[in-house]
Amino acid sequence: YVDMPKSISSMDNMCCIDDTIYFCEYGKISTQEPLPNDPKPGDDNYWEGMYDLYGYKLSKVNLDGSGYETLTNYESIVSQEGNMHANNSIVSLRSTADNTLWICENVNYYSYDAQGNWQDGGSQNFVRQLDLTGKELQRIDISSLQNTANTGEYFYISQMQVDDTGNIYLACNDTGLKVILSGGQASFDITSDGGIGNVLLLSDGSVAACGWGNEGLELKKVDLESKSFGEAISLPNRAYNLFNGGGEYDVYYQDSNNLFGYNVSKQESVKLINWIDSDIDSNNMGSILPLNDGRIIATINDYSYTSSANSIQLAVMSKHDRSEIA
Question: Quick check: pTM over 0.90?
Fold first, then answer.
């Protein structure tokens, strides 16, 4: 177990490069200026913190707890547009073999009316490639996909995966998959009658979607040549919480007490970790990140109601024979 620096309050959307974890931290990032029609301090409909801007910053920390720092070259897309305020959320953070980071961001615009009531101003979606300092290398405005994703008027992106050649896979409204080919110049849609619960990067570098089929949970690889899903592969029905593959397992999944590795070709599950045996309270677990070398990383939260602060431990687990454990 490794204690994380006290200044880290959350670790979301983790990915790992060379024993360094890159992650998102949520909190107050700035304060926006009131717009001309907004309530001002002293007005009856003004409240303290009304223009505080909350969002995500990108940070990194080594697996041993050292080297914690914010990626100072990362700049949020959020800005005030005309008569609108804005805030952002990071849907996904991924790393690729070329040691770059990819983020999918949603920007929501809003304003206040004369009575101080919140007014929806629409949204935009972006995919960006960053270097390891957070500097932007590439930006793709995917807002135009809202009319081509076959998902109806309301549009949102629930997950993103990026393969090592730079192809981008977006789960749209949990019912369809939008694939943007490397370079962002071409894209295509794949729909799924059984919905899409997860989009996963398998250990062989391919990408698959998980959803419900006639026989229960199914895993369907994306075929880039035919622009469709391949043959459905049955999954255990308890595989409701899936994670990217790595090492000798195509994907990982957990139930309430255990973490399993799953081999697609054998359609075989192997129990890797029992949380109770590992002295981990699964109720306090945050993120789980399987690594390519077979190690499993999990964050363990300890929230203090007295100080209203959250402390985080990192559990780094590796496979051992039972005879090696005292």
Answer: no
